[in-house]
Please model this.
Amino acid sequence: MTPAKGDWREARRQGARATLLATAWEMVREDGLAALSLRELARRAGITTPTVYAYFESKNAIFDAMFGEAAEAFAQTKVEPLDTADPHQNLVADATRFVEFCTSDVARYQLLFQHPLPGFRPSPQSYEPAVRAFELTRDELARNGVHDARHVDVWTALMTGLVDQQISNDPGGDRWSRLIDDVVRMFLAHCRNEP
Amino acid sequence: MTPAKGDWREARRQGARATLLATAWEMVREDGLAALSLRELARRAGITTPTVYAYFESKNAIFDAMFGEAAEAFAQTKVEPLDTADPHQNLVADATRFVEFCTSDVARYQLLFQHPLPGFRPSPQSYEPAVRAFELTRDELARNGVHDARHVDVWTALMTGLVDQQISNDPGGDRWSRLIDDVVRMFLAHCRNEP
DNA sequence: GTCTATAGCTGGATAGAC
DNA sequence: GTCTATCCAGCTATAGAC
Model:
């Protein structure tokens, strides 16, 4: 058994890590992923730059931890059960959650689904929750009778397209997110007609 | 009338500018937009850093000129006439050109349609060809009986989604670009059913 | 674990000679 | 227009005292 003293230390350590990550999220939300600097991160957290290295071995280790948090948050959006017994309505709800998840934190979306950081690849551990979450979307589509891999790809393109246009051309608005209903109807009609 | 000597000088100057821009495109294609550095640009072009400032007043001026070239190239994809008399087939051809244009040069696509450079806004002159080109897509949709603004937004989301997934998850392949046919059929059927 | 100090690099931009 | 030389700022990361 680990002694209690060690637990305290470890808890303190994890708390400090969490504080740094929260501060890092603040920064990338304000100025984009590329603008994360360890100096500014340390300054905001009230420590000095070298101390950051007591908690993360490199800048990429910070991004990896952030990626892990983002993937976990994404997986979390899938566990709360959808409300209705109607598969169509559940798919709409799933899409709504997805678009909301992405547009509510653009930096998180970019870190998770685009690859805007040259030289950074998430570790398998950080990546795993995202894969798990994607499987659940496949299940949701299957309950709507959508099994064809091509149709699944059309679905991901549709979701990404709505998010991308919303972020790029109407940030903070709902010009594209309000189209979810139409788009789901269009998609399911298409899959039914061309199985 | 401008004397011939001035014309030579001006032509030389424009040629040097063009060389620098071509080199800049090379660099951003290799390493992304954020990786453009004036030192490296000068090195590759065989001049020194201060000389770059003889042709562009700042780094953002270079990005603006690149944006202008990208917008002009985009407009150019719209002027070659589409082949058939069938509006549906023309829309497919238009979509194919668009996806090809975007996926064949990711950096150009990002510069033109996403906004990945904090602090950079294209000048109106550079932006104008892109607006012109978008109007032509609206016309193409109108010839297919699509007039509703919501439907136009669904169209742009579809195109962006295909491009985005193709770039992010199958670079160099055709996993999403080959879905254009299906997607256009899906879209037009939807617009016909819900006018 | 936290600090001071600093190495070592890269960046955009400018001064001034030629 | 082109150069050398330089300024000033930013960055990641490390050494070593405490």
